[in-house]
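Task 17 of the worksheet. Students: predict the tertiary structure of the chain below and write it out as structure tokens. Keep your answer in the requested format; marks are given for formatting as well as content.
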Amino acid sequence: MRFWRARANSIQARLVALALAAIAPFIALEGCNLYVAHVEKVKAAEDHARRLTEHATERYADMVDEARALLDLLAEVPDTVLSTPESCTSFMSRIARSRPWARGLWASDETGKVTCTNYPGAIGIDISDRPWFPVASKSGFTISDMFIGKFNNMPMTMATLSRPASPDLPSRVFATSMDLSHFDKIGAAAIDVPGASTMLIDGSGAVISHTPAAAPLASRNFRDNPVIAEMRRTGKGLLRSAALEGTDRFYGYTQLPGTSVLMVIGIPSAPVMNAALDSIVWTTVFSLLMLALAASLAIGLGRHFVVSPLRRLAWKTSRIGHGDLSVRVGDLKAGREFAATAKAFDSMANRIQRREAELVEANARLQEREKALESANQILDDLASLDGLTGIANRRRFEAAFGAAWDRAAEDGKPIGLLLIDVDHFKRFNDTRGHLAGDDCLRRIARLVRAAPRRGTDLAARYGGEEFAVLLPGSDATYAMDIADALRKAIQDQRIGRRGAEDAPVTVSIGVAAMTHAEAARRDALIEAADAALYDAKVGGRNRVILASRPAATLVPDLPRTSETPAPARREWLTSRHR
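Model answer:
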């Protein structure tokens, strides 16, 4: 009895009890693993079905993008290529062969008469009775709902692009039929899972395509099926049911964009569950055996040779891990087996100390360089956006500010005001006084132009040569005219360049325009309107401000004629300024 009592109180017995106590949680953990593995297998099957349906949606979107690019290309083709049946059919056929999803390419006039197609026998037929044609002829790019093709009896959708008539090209409607059976590739990917299936179901509930093809569902209709009703309601998602194909399956589904067609992919649940159970059983048996073996080895060999030295080693290395780099492990009194490990930890602590010092120094240098780089970049940015002679914003800065103001005007609907300023008789001044005097004149005028804006969003810039511009975002014509009148008077009052009674001071002519985004046919219309007003100020005697009477919708031909100058001379001057 004493012997057995002593054995029970020994370290060996305690290690055995500790090992048994250690195994018990692992057994409980394996029970949890049964459930976790089951959930993971189910989730993997659901994720696989979801990925396949997402791939279907992405593939259909790619087909739509390809169709849009193809129709844009056809709309740019010269009408001479599409005018004869031979060249038209050859051209269309070459394009269709390179795109397996494009079953047909069509071009028709606005009445629906086919003028060009890759089907030679179809030229001249009337397609105006097709349900998609009335929408296609009145819209830009459109995608029709699913229908069954008359030529190939295949499920498809129609992508169309209407090209309005222009001086060079007649009105045309271009169309390409996208074959939905091309999604069989997606079905083939799903068949990698035994028993998997794919279906395309139209808006009436009819199965228009089914993979594998031998399955008996191709002729069924699911109009009143509650599973299909749920899929229709949500449009995209994942569910589990046995009401479609008679077996319990995971179904991933999505409604193809722009159509009423449902893409449904089913993966059988039974193989997933059986595989999960087999995996769990074998994993559990193997884990229990390995745990028992590991516990036995730990009890028999690790008690003296591993546990105690490791505890001492762990204590010292944990101090190193917590930042106490003064600790060294080399003085650990343990077996020779731990000598290399102790030496490695000491070497690591030394390297960490050196690296920390190097890192602090490198961070300091990096911060200094970053500050220098930021300062240099700021200087370069300022230099790139300023005019070297006058010191105000240059043409590049003006163009960037004008583009941003135009985009804001498109959103908030507020008008944009613009002043175009030209120095009167500057060439004569420059020739008689010299370039240095001309430069000084421009600098003095630039200072007055820069002082003209009253708000932080306004911008004064040198537009080029002796021209300046003032951009007034959110300003109407009244505000713009106030700024322009004040600026013209300020420049005249400075009497720049006047040396005696016989010398006339330098003056400026200013063209003013203000319009909203909706009033302008395009972005340059505002500049053209201000330019036209500046011309009117010039021909009207100079040293004056003229407000543009209306937006200049086109470059020159539509500009208003003034009473002072005939239209041909005015067009020639403005055209030369915009070359």
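Marker's comment: Confidence is low (pLDDT under 50) at residues 552-571. Residues 92 and 487 are 62 Å apart (CA to CA).
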